């Protein structure tokens, strides 16, 4: 009986050792918590990696909660596996698994990590700390307040259709603002509220959007024809609403906050955000005073 117990124990020890050395996904794991929601972390990682000369690639896995990043240090390629877990509406937990893609280096790391601080662990901690500092700076520059269920606006729009990345959204607005409003103003068209963005397609894996940059107007016979400007009416729909304060470049953070709210409250939504902008960025001022209303339409039984 004792021999059998020892044999089973020995087998389990060897199996655990083999798993640890050859199968375990990462060589080293770092955990931290942060006062923001997963979408903001996801976007910060993607933008942060563009500032690093050592980054080879960053890819979103099945959803925005999982990212794989490859970073080059000298002759080694390290993989960073980012797992983001929401704790509540304003707090998330991040687990980062780091692995040297060279098998022999990986085994060496796994042997040394439990017993000493190595160059590998120091470099990993410095890299993750850099991300944490970028994230802390980012979340200090915007605020999202969930209002709840309401109706999205009903407006007649003059708009310019655009296809860009999420980060380029504000640039597309600024590039077309003078053209759109100038053409309408020259024809004597009456405006009917602040500028808007209506997202028609949102590719969350590649962070690209098809959207209409729009100026609500009063429909009339004065509308410019034969230009790049198009026209349509949008009708009110039940929607989740948030108030965003901050630079309009990152107003899409409110989209993710609304998605999280919808998931937690079992509300089915269309991933087609609508934004209403109440400040002109060209006038400058404190960005935290800039305001946008963000709507995420709720799916109905007919859809």
Descriptive notes:
Keywords: Membrane, Transmembrane, Transmembrane helix. The chain crosses the membrane at residues 6-23. Residues 145-299 form the AraC effector-binding domain. It comes from Croceivirga thetidis. The protein is an alpha+beta fold. The protein has two domains: 25-140, TATA-Binding Protein (2-Layer Sandwich), CATH 3.30.310; 145-297, Multidrug-efflux Transporter 1 Regulator Bmrr, Chain A (Alpha-Beta Barrel). Helix content is 31%, strand content 36%. The protein contains six helices and 13 strands. The chain has helices spanning 2-23, 38-49, 103-112, 119-139, 169-186, 253-264, and strands at 28-34, 55-60, 66-73, 76-88, 91-100, 142-151, 155-165, 196-203, 208-217, 230-234, 238-246, 274-277, 291-297. Strands 6-11-13-12-8-9-7-10 form an eight-stranded antiparallel beta sheet. A hairpin with a 2-residue loop joins strand 4 (76-88) and strand 5.
Using brief descriptors, characterize the structure shown.
transmembrane helix, alpha+beta, AraC_E-bd, 303 residues, TATA-Binding Protein, 5-stranded antiparallel sheet, membrane, AraC family transcriptional regulator
């Amino acid at each position: 009986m004792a021999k059998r117990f020892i044999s089973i124990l020995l087998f389990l020890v060897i199996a655990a050792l083999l798993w640890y050395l050859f199968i375990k996904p990462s060589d080293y794991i770092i955990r931290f918590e942060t006062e923001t929601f997963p979408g903001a972390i996801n976007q910060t990682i993607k933008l942060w990696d563009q500032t690093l000369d050592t980054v080879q690639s960053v890819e979103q896995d099945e959803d925005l909660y999982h990212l794989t990043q490859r970073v080059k240090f000298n002759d080694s390629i390290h993989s960073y596996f980012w797992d983001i877990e929401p704790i509540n509406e304003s707090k998330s937990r991040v687990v980062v698994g780091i692995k040297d893609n060279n098998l022999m280096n990986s085994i060496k790391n796994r042997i040394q990590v439990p017993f000493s601080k190595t160059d590998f662990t120091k470099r990993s901690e410095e890299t993750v700390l850099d991300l944490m500092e970028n994230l802390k700076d980012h979340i200090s520059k915007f605020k999202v307040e969930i209002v709840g269920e309401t109706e999205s606006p009903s407006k007649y729009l003059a708009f310019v259709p655009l296809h860009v990345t999420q980060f380029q959204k504000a640039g597309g607005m600024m590039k077309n603002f003078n053209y759109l409003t100038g053409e309408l103003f020259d024809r004597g068209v009456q405006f009917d509220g602040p500028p808007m963005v209506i997202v028609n397609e949102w590719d969350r894996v590649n962070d690209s959007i098809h959207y209409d940059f729009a100026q609500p107007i009063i429909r009339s016979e004065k509308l410019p024809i034969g230009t790049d400007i198009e026209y349509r009416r949008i009708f009110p729909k039940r929607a989740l609403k948030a108030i965003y304060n901050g630079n309009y470049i990152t107003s899409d953070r409110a989209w993710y906050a609304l998605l999280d709210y919808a998931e937690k409250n079992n509300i089915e939504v269309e991933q087609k955000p609508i934004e209403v902008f109440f400040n002109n960025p060209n006038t400058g001022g404190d960005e935290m005073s800039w305001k946008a209303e963000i709507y995420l339409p709720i799916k109905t039984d007919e859809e």
